[in-house]
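Table 4 source record.
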Amino acid sequence: MHSIVVEESTLARNSPKFASLRTTVPMSIIKQWNLKEGDKIEWSWEILQGEMVVVVRKKRNTE
């Protein structure tokens, strides 16, 4: 059995020149994955029963 944790963050404009938005990574995720500045994360998503389900993973270093 797993538990679902809900975190909230706010979107902000990345730059007036670009259409992308940015957000912060919740501290619980930073601690869980031992994230550091410069680390990369991968985003994947799919639509299930009319809802977008997003999966975020720490990108593994392949070097």
